Amino acid sequence: MTGTLSINGTELRVSLRGDELLLDLLRDLGYTEVKEGCREGACGSCLVLLEGTLVNSCQVLAASALGRQITTVKGLGTFHQPHLIQDAFVEAGAVQCGFCTPGMVLATFALLKNNPNPTEEQIRHALDGNLCRCTGYVKIIEAVKLAAERMASNA
Amino acid sequence: MPRKNEKSISPDRTHVGRSLPKNDALALATAQELFTADYPLEGALHCALLYSPHAHAEIRSIDTEAARAVEGVVDILTYQNVPRILHTSAGQGYPEPSPYDSVLFDRRMRFVGDRVALVAANTLEAAQEAIRKIEVDYEMLETLLERREAMDNDAPRLHGGEDHAKIPVAYEPEKNLAAEVQIAFGDMEQGFAEADFIEENDYSLPAASHCAMEPHAALAYIDQRGRLVVISTTQVPFHARRIVSKLIEAPMHQIRVIKPRIGGGFGGKQEVLLEPLVALVAWRHKRPARLVLSRREVFVTTRTRHAADLHMKTAAGKDGRITALQMDCLLEAGAYGTHSLTVLSNVGSKVLPLFNKIDNIRFHGRSVYTNLPVSGAYRGYGATQGYFAWNQQIDAVARWAGQDVVEYCKRWHIRSGETSAVFEALGEGKEGVSQVVQSCGLSECLDRGARAIGWSDKRDRRIRVEPDKVKGMGLAVAMQGSGIPLVDMGAASMKMNEDGSFTLYVGATDIGTGSDTILAQIAAEVIRVPIEKIIVLSSDTDLTPFDVGAYASSTTYVSGQAVKACAEKIADQIMATAAQLLETKTQDLHLEAEKVCDKTGKKSISFEEVATSATYNRDQYQIQAQASYTCQQSPPPFIAQFAEVDVDLKTGRVEVVRFVSAADCGQPINPVLAEGQIEGAVVNGLSYALWEEYRYDEHGRMTNPRFWDYRIFTARDIPELQTILVDSQEPTGPFGAKSIGEVAINGPAPAIANAVYDAVGVRIRDLPITPEKVWRALSEQDRS
Amino acid sequence: MRKPKNHTKSVEARKQRGDEVAEIQWYFPNELDEVSEILRQEGIIPHSGGTGILWGGMTRIRGLMDVSHLGLKFFRTRDGTIELGAALSYAETATALAESGHLLSRSLRAAATEPLRNRISLGGSISMFPYWSDLMGPLLAHKAEVSLVGANSGTWTLDEYLKNRDLRQNTLITSIRLPDLPWQGAYYRHTRTPTDRPAFSITVLLRRKAKRIEEIRSVVVGCSGRYRRLAGVDQILQGSELPPDPSQLLEESVQKLNIDFPARMGFSTEYLKACAAIELERTLASALESSPKSTTGSVS
User: Fold this and answer.
1) What pLDDT is recorded for position B79?
2) CB within 8 Å: C14 and A2
3) Is B341 helix (H, G, I), strand (E, B) or coil?
4) Which CATH class is domain B142-208+304-428?
């Protein structure tokens, strides 16, 4: 089947199989910032925003995303114009191997959009779909707090 | 702004001790960096693997006709068309201390997940379809699924024939013995006889998966000059090059291995597993090849932590002095013996020296083959297993002697200026290396950690948090090493660019640890230049000098010393050139913030001027240097780790409320990165203590190869974590540094076990410490 | 891989690579009227979040009917009834009910993980009803009703829906109704780690007048038989006057608990059974202590 997808503001016409996962389609189209870590919806490496909502792209059938807006981490910021969340992660020492980081950044974005001043419990809850084996989460939680602080002072 | 563990920087230090951001952090956070599976590879052959569904079987025949008929299939590799070259997949220095007991494709299948065939096709879908169409006829063989039965006379044999050890060590495949290590000092009988108390127990730990977020992957292609290039998720690019050369029978000088960004390793990628496969496909077909594993394949077919049984007998006098210590260990190698000798050696060599005043010690360990997934390197590397048993024994002895275990450990641990006979006795397949410990902050770690967690207010109190919840406190101490002495070598080279910047080439392997950054910090400290002016290129066998790779906690200490030595040579050349240009003596000059100054301060010249002059002016030469370093010893980092738990008396559920780690890693080059290593290791250790294990059915199939059923901690699980770095300087380390990558994973499990005992009086000696085990133990306690 | 600038390139390139046309047919109806026709075909099932479909595997599925254009994401309260559109996700439902502290809000917020909560739909979850459902306990305790369209159209109680296999064939759940009860309640989920699925869950909903328990409904989900209303337990407590220390009464009622569990998630049947009894007592105590709001709830 064919259809259109809007990814980070760019509209693409795509062909896809009916049982194809959004993760595979995105990576095939070149959006390798969306990672595959487990293919079972547990690790969060494949997170994207689908119409602004945080979802595991490995748990979304691509066909159901046709005609919708998808945001990957590159839709939030780039190397030359990073999002302040990305800067916060760098500063807090929350990036070790970096494989989980795109997903963490998106989860943080989704959290702070709805809840600009989250408690620690709310932060842990919002990031509970993101596995990290390098950091032990400590500096990631600090990064989220730092990002919240910065966003508040920017507002 | 100074960070928490940044000590007041000595006035002459510009980079060492500063928590600078990792030089790849922004590129990673913005997903600018590519991981292996992200690299575009036009016209690649996609590879898929067929695995044995049987734990022990012989392939009678393989019929690939239907598979070959699938459109897009280009090749199918099996034992029939791939040379049988014995090797070990272990990423270790040559000659490897692991037995040569593996071939790329065998007829004999030794575990569910062993490799049967590889299909290379134009699309992944075609490869996967072809895999499903390969027909294999197996002759079933008796399976060996219990490590305790492996050496029985009637146990099925997994290896033999041509399998052999590459170095002279105990290896008896006909008995399923992959490795054996024994040391003994003193007189055990005497030691036991003079004791007033003997604590003798069995301990057990399961296999575990590293769960690096990035699954294993490898690419290979032929470059414009016909050379083979391999890009893979490797912790050991140089070992990979050597082993690939051997296995595809192509000269090593025709092979280049590049390590890109890696999404975590923890030992799981210290193995040369996928590289030879893609290399073979690319070499044969002169087309690129690509192989990316699924998470399930990572769980089942890559490597695990060694499952272990330990038996410890500790004898002590009334005053608590240990008069004899016996440790027996049975490690489960699984189907192949990679890392089985060295992990086994480390069970003893990293644990027994910690209390070095014990006269009578015996260590006897064996690694045995079974028809189960293959164990290999895993952070902690035997020390984790050993310390789980050892720390519970110590806790019991201290209690019996009526002493607080914190004070007890302070009394008996090895100190700066001391040695242990174990260092020399236990090497890694070679002789061990005697060493005198030159830095040990463990007592301070114990004091500060105990204070931070409120030890004396909560230990031995059994505070009732709620009617059904009791609080307990537990301690574990540990040491590790910094590289393998006289074995691990790292090298660095540097050149100066005309603008006064530098390019630093290191073989050292950054797997997310930040080694690229800390090595640049070391160089910047020597040369007195902002870190942005150090361009780091690492882990490319064509471009960078040799390094053993990221393992054995070697990078900071070994590679760091190479970088320091190299940078010092560069500094000398800069000053020599400056001396000429300034018409002074080199002795009167020093480096300071991108310039060379004389004593008076009146004469100076910028790095840029020096470099430009050296490049273009007269007596032109390239300011460049290289250095290698092989560590002569392995100065241990030390750690004291404290767990505060609340135990539910009715359900046995153990909640870790607070966890404190106080570590001595010498001078932390970058405190935030050092903390990050500790925090990550701790959370991995907590998760292993409470939930992680490989489960198998009666056919030897892993039944939980998914995060769904193999639980690891999320942000919602972690307790309050605190990390303390004590002041310590290791004189033999670069700027006083030791390493920190592994040691923190050793404490969580025994600290929790000791805390559970403190809370409710039951000891759980087999991991994981599940609620049901505690519940059963409590029920038994009630009954008796 | 370079992103295709020419949008048709990706279509052609993928076709050339041999990606076949979907065997799975997708339907995107805009009106509920279209549903019966579509679902009448064999092998076509509704798709909302899709997580349950991926879980079950897609080999027997011929087609998927996406419900996102049918206007089934709604939340209405009127005349003492809460009506939830079946396409609402766990997260959306939890948010809609959060302010009132509703029991369902607490159970759904605890379920799974953030991105999965954003995707698991009420209708999909009811039709799949896995043992680990964090939805069914509170719904059953509230005696919720489901409205259906398709081969079967109308409204049934959840119990009827679950008992009757035919109701689940060729049918779409459109909404769920539950009474807006100003009751007290508590919810417990038995897991290994917090983001785990529960091996079982316990829901207690009760209505008190001063010291008297007027009505109580306890449900266990995940036991043998998938779920059980704890009639025996309820019977002891319903109509009784609470003494100042209710623990003896609770203990007595828990002794009426007679359910079994299959061994799962590393827990033995013996242990699960023991935990069920212990946690039921705790959940009952928690329910009694919870504050009643205009809609109920607290999670133990």
Assistant:
1) 98
2) no
3) helix
4) alpha beta
Neighbours of B763 (CB within 10 A): 16
Q: Does C56 touch chain A (CB under 8 A)?
A: no
Domain positions in chain A are 2-75, 84-154
- Beta-bridge partner residues of B51: B115
Q: How far apart are CA A102 and CA B129, in angstroms?
A: 32
Q: Do the domains B485-630 and B438-477+637-784 match in fold? A: yes
Of the residues B4, B23, B30, the best mutation for testing chain A's interface (the one with the most A CB atoms within 10 Å of its CB) is: B30
Chosen CATH of C75-179 out of 3.30.465.10, 3.60.20.30, 3.30.420.40, 3.40.50.300: 3.30.465.10
Helix residue ranges, H only, A49-137: 84-92, 101-114, 120-126
Q: Name the one residue in this structure whose structure tokens are 């040569």.
A: B100
Q: Flag whether residue C182 sits within 8 Å of chain A, measured between CB atoms.
A: no
Pick from B301, B343, B354: nearest CA to B551:
B343
The alpha carbon of residue C300 and the mean position of all alpha carbons in its chain are separated, in whole angstroms, by 18
CATH number of A84-154: 1.10.150.120
Subunit contact C115:A56, Cβ cutoff 8 A: yes
pLDDT classification of C20: cutoffs 50, 70, 90? very low
CA B70 to chain C, closest CA, distance in angstroms equals 12
State yes or no: pLDDT of B27 exceeds 80. Answer: yes
Backbone CA torsion sign across B293, B294, B295, B301: negative
Which residues of chain B make contact with A139, given a CB cutoff of 8 A? Answer: 672, 675-676, 679
Q: Which residues pair with C190 in a beta bridge?
A: C200
* pLDDT mean over B56-83: 97
pLDDT in tens, B739-757: 999 999 999 999 999 999 9
How far out from the chain centre does Cα B521 lie?
23
Which CATH number applies to C184-289? Answer: 3.30.390.50
C137 vs B359: CA distance, rounded Å: 62
Tokens of B510: 């950054």
ipTM for the whole predicted complex goes beyond 0.95: yes
- CB contacts, 8 Å: A19 with chain C: 22-24, 58
pTM, rounded to two decimals: 0.96
The superfamily CATH assigns to domain A2-75 is Beta-grasp domain (3.10.20.30)
The bridge status of strand A47-50 relative to strand C200-209 is unpaired
Distance from the A143 Cα atom to the nearest Cα atom in chain C, whole angstroms: 19
- List chains touching B (3+ CB pairs under 8 A): A, C
